[in-house]
Specification:
By secondary structure, the chain is of the alpha+beta class. The protein is built from 21 helices and 29 strands.
């Protein structure tokens, strides 16, 4: 096919003519052109051909840095082909959620005298998953032709506020003027409602029966979009079924209620010029004069979650999954929202672990069944889960007989009656398998399968992120627990207890630490500190600080010297994190304590006499550990008496610091609670302070507490 000369047209006309010719030439279902802005790295949708603009659920403007086949085609200057919806869900789960249909997609860069943007073409799901060499060459030739139209245009097109709808052009056929009246008479005589929609969703023709069934008149409905003209049709399911017909190019049938009590059967028959629709009263049987469609979705029997429309449902579930952090969060969203949305009663989520299927979450199953399924080899023939996980292709079984043909023992093992096995794959990483099961036989329509495949891509993305987060948390938490003292040494004439409470919000691990060092039978050192940050680096630095403090304390250094030497160690490590620390040397023979602080909250001392309150031991703070200084850091020492029966409390700021409270007032409150509860056993006192020191405390930061009582 020779290129059309576009030089005589302006930019927009040339672009539209080239796009229409490209869609016809390639046999695509639809096409669109995204132009690259000259002022910012943004792609904007300029023109759409073959489908209505309202059917495009992707953003009309997208950052060039965003993930997706269009932006990849522009950034990498190559043709991007996605031949199956399973590939779309694996590679681009967000786009799969916006297009939950069986489609093939090609994105080609438009790169001529400058980077113009990208061409996107869609084919229905019956296109083979791979491109032939001829198709590849035709796509690239079409992209070059469209690029030349942009290069040769005297006025380059701009990105419009609203994308233009480009006419595809009708196929050769009889002259409409010669056949229009006869066709109108024919349709008017039919006893069923008949109407025609163009690719923009507007009514171009309807007979009197259709207007009567819809509850309006021909004059009022002509030229309107049905779900905008009739309030009772303003429901996502109508637009969603229309969009399904547009993209699939296959008939769609569904049943809807016209208030107050009249059910109507809708049958949509699409082609590349529009949609023909038949409307008949629902009489619990298919009308004899209409062939059965390939897709059937009865609104009155659909699960509650699906009544809102597949795209709306996927967007809602994607939003819920985007808020998840841990694997448990993902499992709960799938169980609490996905199961009811798709009418399923059971769920099993498993991941690959050392060549086996490890079940990490389930719902609606007897634990004994889960115990039998957990740990099966990936190559097991007992269930399809391993095969689905390894192959990345979903499997659907409408009843036990269908499953038994491939896996004879599986139906009896699970006790369910229908199953959807969904692979959880992100790019080339096979994350796991999600199984939705039903207690009764369940037919999975093409629409159901398309939505579930798109959903699997979203779940896989959330699960992959959650698995990584949990692994990071386990590593950091294990590191922190290994670095904290497992037991505290026994020291004569000194009772001691400690508490560590991780933050209630977030899963990162901090660097709060405490320690008790036995120096002799009558002396000891107590230390508490807080490393800046909540990550593995903070936990590792905490261990280095503990080691440095312990080494300097055991060689007999004074409190100020211990902190100064530890500071030098941290400065030499050249770490960007800082550490607050409070060091206390305890002399049980003299009943005295010696304190030095590196910017840490002050210690509290409760006197054993009831008439005396708890007092704050003000210590002149030195600089935080790890801050490099031009002169030697000085940590001054404060001395205080330690009477028999007195309680010394060391703590980190997680116990007293909240965003909406003054820290001085919080320390005063903590001292008050120590005064009131000081007669309790030391373990009970520690629990009391942790939970009641600061009113309504939500533990937004890690908390460490060390209590010492002179005997």
């Amino acid at each position: 096919m020779r290129d059309i000369p576009y030089g005589s047209l302006d930019g927009e006309e040339a672009l539209d003519e080239a796009l229409s010719a490209t869609v016809r030439r390639t046999g695509a279902l639809a096409g669109g052109v995204y132009l690259l802005s000259v002022s910012e790295p943004v792609l904007g949708l300029a023109a759409v051909c073959g489908v209505p603009v309202v059917a495009i659920t992707l953003p009309h403007r997208t950052a060039l840095s965003a993930g997706g086949p269009l932006t990849e085609a522009v950034r990498e200057d190559r043709l991007v082909w996605v031949g199956r919806q399973e590939d779309m869900a694996r590679l681009y789960p967000n786009m799969a959620a916006a297009f939950p249909y069986q489609l093939a997609l090609a994105c080609a860069p438009l790169h001529g005298v400058r980077r113009w943007g990208a061409l996107g073409l869609l084919w229905s799901g019956n296109h083979p998953p791979s491109l032939t060499r001829r198709e590849h060459n035709l796509l690239m030739s079409s992209a070059r032709s469209l690029t030349r139209a942009l290069d040769d245009s005297p006025a380059p097109p701009a990105i419009p506020e609203t994308p233009r709808a480009v006419t595809l052009g009708r196929r050769p056929g009889p002259d409409p003027a010669q056949t229009g009246l006869a066709a109108a008479d024919l349709v008017q005589r039919l006893p069923v409602g008949a109407l025609s929609l163009d690719l923009e969703g507007r009514i171009t023709y309807l007979n009197d029966a259709a207007a009567r069934l819809l509850g309006s008149t021909v004059d009022r409905l002509m030229g309107t979009v049905p779900w905008q003209a009739l309030p009772w049709l303003d429901h996502p399911v109508h637009e969603d079924n229309y969009r399904t017909a547009v993209f699939s190019r296959e008939p769609v049938a569904y049943t809807a209620l016209r208030p107050p009590d009249r059910w109507l059967d809708f049958r949509l028959y699409p082609d590349d010029s529009g949609i023909s629709a038949l409307i008949v009263p629902n009489q619990q049987r298919d009308p004899a004069d209409a062939p059965p469609p390939h897709i059937t979705a009865h609104l009155d029997s659909a699960p509650e979650g699906l009544r809102a429309g597949r795209i709306h449902q996927l967007v809602h579930l994607a939003a819920a999954l985007s808020q998840t952090v841990t694997v448990a969060d993902v499992i709960n969203v799938v169980a609490d929202q996905v199961l009811p949305a798709f009418g399923a009663q059971g769920m099993v989520v498993s991941v690959a672990d050392a060549g086996r299927l490890k079940i990490i979450g389930h719902r609606g199953y007897d634990p004994r069944i889960i115990a039998r399924l957990d740990g099966l080899p990936l190559d097991t023939r007992l269930t399809p889960a391993g095969q689905v996980l390894q192959g990345g292709v979903p499997a659907f079984y409408a009843d036990p007989a269908e499953l038994a043909r491939a896996h004879p023992r599986a139906p009896a093992l699970s006790g369910k009656q229908a199953w959807a096995f969904l692979p959880l794959v992100v790019s080339d990483r096979h994350v796991g398998c999600c199984v939705l099961s039903y207690e009764h036989p369940h037919v999975f329509s093409a629409g159901d399968r398309a939505v579930l495949v798109s959903l699997a891509g979203i779940i896989a993305q959330a699960m992959d992120r959650a698995l990584l987060y949990d692994a990071k948390h386990r590593l950091a938490h294990g590191l922190q627990q290994a670095l904290l003292p497992h037991t505290l040494p026994t020291i004569p004439k000194l009772n001691v207890t400690a508490r560590y409470l991780p933050a209630a919000q977030g899963m990162d691990v901090g660097g709060d630490f405490y320690d008790l060092i036995r120096l002799s039978d009558t002396t000891a050192a107590a230390v508490i500190g807080d490393v800046q940050g909540h990550n593995i680096t903070a936990a590792a630095l905490m261990g280095q600080v503990r080691t440095a403090v312990h080494a300097n304390a055991t060689v007999g250094a004074l409190p100020g010297e211990v902190l100064a030497r530890t500071n030098r160690v941290l400065v030499d490590l050249d770490n960007d994190l800082f550490v607050s620390c409070l060091y206390v040397h305890i002399d049980l023979a003299e009943r005295r304590i010696y304190l030095a602080s590196a910017g840490h909250p002050p210690a509290l001392l409760r006197d054993p006499h009831p008439e005396l309150a708890t007092r704050v031991l003000d210590v002149e703070p030195g600089p935080l550990l790890g801050i490099g200084m031009s002169v030697e850091s000085v940590y001054r020492v404060t001395t205080a008496a330690l009477p028999v029966g007195s309680v010394l409390a060391l703590y980190t700021d997680g116990l007293v610091e909240t965003p909406d409270a003054d820290i001085t007032e919080s320390i005063t409150t903590l001292a008050h609670h120590l005064t009131l509860g000081g007669d309790r056993p030391l373990d009970d006192l520690a629990d009391h302070l942790i939970h009641h020191a600061v009113p309504h405390h939500t533990h937004t930061d890690d908390t460490a507490l060390l209590l010492l009582q002179s005997r």
